[in-house]
Amino acid sequence: MKEKLLVGWKETLDLPELGIYGIEAKVDTGAASSVLHCNSYKVVKEDGQDWIICELITNFETKETKTLKLKLYRTKLVKSSFGQEEKRYYIRTTATLYNQVFSIKISFRNRSQMTYPMLLGKNFLYKRFLVDVSKENLSTKPLVK
């Protein structure tokens, strides 16, 4: 059995396939899925394939944005933290923590009113990580053996 990595209540990670580095994410074991801030998005169909075109902030200090066209993995109705149902669009990509690359499914929402531009949900954490809510940014600190 592979040993689980320890993460804190917030972590800094990279989403290299999206060109996003050093993004702060709140670890949320109460949320099923992971969510990334997106200024705007739309779904288009081309040659029978669904794509999501989204405007993502790639540099959170300068607020630099980039428009990406990403292959849509899944569409799902989910209940928000306020109990409202909404349609969410998911992509598959990779996230880097502890200098390791992990697959992740991400949905998009406008999180401009939230403190952190990303949530890491329990579907990503499951069987990979343990959460210590008294710590933060453990994945960017050197591992001590």
TrEMBL record:
Record-linked InterPro entries: Asp_endopeptidase, Peptidase_aspartic_dom_sf
Domain of life of the native organism: Bacteria
Keyword hit for NAD: no
Cross-referenced Gene3D superfamilies: Acid Proteases
Record domain Retropepsin-like aspartic endopeptidase: where: 7-141
Lineage: Bacteria, Pseudomonadati, Bacteroidota, Sphingobacteriia, Sphingobacteriales
Keywords, comma-separated and alphabetical: Hydrolase, Protease
Transmembrane segments: none
A GO BP entry: proteolysis
Name used for this protein in its record: ATP-dependent zinc protease
MF terms in GO: peptidase activity
